[in-house]
Amino acid sequence: MKQLTPRLEHAVEWLMALALAVMVLAIGSNVVLRYVFNTGIPAAEEVARLMFVWMIFLGAILALRHGSHLGMEILQAHLPAGLRRGCAIVSHLLMLYALWLFLEGSWSQTVIGLDTYSTVLGFPTALMAGSGLICALAMLPMVGLNLWRIVTRHPAARIPGEAQAHDRAHASDPEVSQ
User: Fold this and answer.
1) Helices marked H in 66-161 — which ranges?
2) pLDDT tens digit sequence for 26-59
């Protein structure tokens, strides 16, 4: 499992890079064709939109994995450790609920999208909604695992504000700061 996770991350990063390259190529060539040859590629916008949506949702998965999502950790860093842990549990439960709603909605949209097709290329719009489905399916176990780690006081648990509280405590200790 330890070998699989970095490989999956690497694959997701390559997929994101590929999506970005396709976007740049589609939009860039369309701009050149419009301004130089007074023509364009009608499918370029649909392809770019599809790649953008997938790139965003894949990036959200990686950001969660690395703890890089924006958060309000300043307030939590000033709370006592027990209250900080309690806030983390509540916020993780709320995230799990939101991800469950996201999963349900993405599933519904994916099913609807199987019979609905894009305007220009005619691909099933389930390809667009499927990105949300994959995102929710990947994020649910990550948030659930971190919640389990918080509840069981596992050393690998990520508790928002923990690092800042630790840094603040050591900055005020004269022995540690020297």
Assistant:
1) 73-77, 81-113, 126-151
2) 999 999 999 999 888 889 999 999 999 999 999 9
102 lies in a domain?
Answer: yes
pLDDT tens string 54-111:
999 999 999 999 888 777 788 888 889 899 999 999 999 999 999 999 999 999 999 9
**Distance, CA of 83 to CA of 154 (rounded, Å):** 17
Whether residue 175 is contained in a domain is answered as no
**33 vs 133: CA distance, rounded Å:** 35
In terms of domains, do 93 and 147 share one? yes
Q: Which of 153, 3, 174, 143 is nearest to 85 (CA)?
A: 153
Range of the domain at 126: 80-161
Shared-domain flag, residues 21 and 90: no
Q: Is residue 166 part of a domain?
A: no
Decide: 165 and 74 in contact? Cβ < 8 Å: no
On the 0-12 / 13-18 / 19+ scale of CB atoms within 10 A, 73 is: middle
The total of structural domains in the chain comes to 2
Q: Are residues 65 and 115 in the same domain?
A: no
